Amino acid sequence: MQRLDDTDALDPSAAGRFVPRWRPTPAIRLSIWLHVLVIPTGVAWPAAWLWLLVAVLGNHLLLGLLGMWPRSQMLGDNLSRLPPPSRAKRQVALTFDDGPDPDVTPIVLDLLDRHAAKASFFCIGQHVAAYPELVRDIIRRGHSVENHSYRHPYAFACYRPSALRREIEATQREIYAITGSRPAFFRAPMGLRSPLLDFLLAQSSLRYVSWTRRGLDCFSRNPATVLKRLTRGLTAGEVLLLHDGSCARTKDGDPILLAVLPSLLEHLTRRKLQPVSLPIACADT
User: Are 120 and 186 in contact (CB under 8 A)?
Assistant: First the structure.
């Protein structure tokens, strides 16, 4: 298993790779300027220090609240709906988090094959290292393996930049070592974002992805309820979030996902919606 160390060395696939320019959003720009100006302003007007402190704390609180809004665009680019060309083709993106899971993921792959469906698997780096053949099988069957951090820490959004970078890059290296290619997409644990994340993703040539709708299959034990959340009013271009890892169980002890996925795929077929992976959906953008 690859060790999550303090190095920031990129894998060989990064050589010559285009690194997109980071473009801070207005909210981030305002925050940067606030921090730049607070010290000289306080030196020039000592009586203003209390108000400056309140402004900085308020800024941090606002950024923290924005990070808890999974589909917000205010902290950086956020793919929560597929681009127009994909919508015109009546595509939807199937995404699975927290895997791979040796008991669940192989059955998910078989179900996808039966319906000629493609998907993106947002994998935890430690699980990738533990089940390399399963990761290779995901790729062999035409799906994509994406980055979901190395350890899936619950406090991910609160990490300092160096720790965020290690979580991201360790997973990039692990997936590259097994598949020969680096992921193009990243989803934060629980969808909670750090204000610093967008800059780090740009350095790793990763695009941030949230979702249009999720089934909450990590918590709900009722397959009908999960399916309803995913299908009610479903239209082309949506990004659906499910879990092949850490999913809840039915009353009979079966993974919720395996009770929901067949019905979901049948619903997509009836609606003439094509399930695709994110690289397929975003190929024209």
Answer: no
Terminus-to-terminus CA distance in the chain, angstroms?
A: 35
Alpha-carbon distances, residue 186 vs 20, 145, 150, 159, 240 (angstroms): 15, 10, 11, 16, 15
Q: What is the pTM of this model?
A: 0.86
pLDDT at 14 over 50: no
Domain locations along the chain: 26-67, 84-281
Q: Which residues are catalytic?
A: 97, 243
**71 pLDDT tier (thresholds 50, 70, 90):** confident
pLDDT exceeds cutoff 90 at 116: yes
Please, which residues bridge with residue 202 across strands?
A: none
pLDDT at 3 over 60: no
Query: The domain 84-281: what is its CATH number?
Result: 3.20.20.370
CA angle 66, 217, 104 (to 5 degrees): 125
Tokens of 262: 């067949």
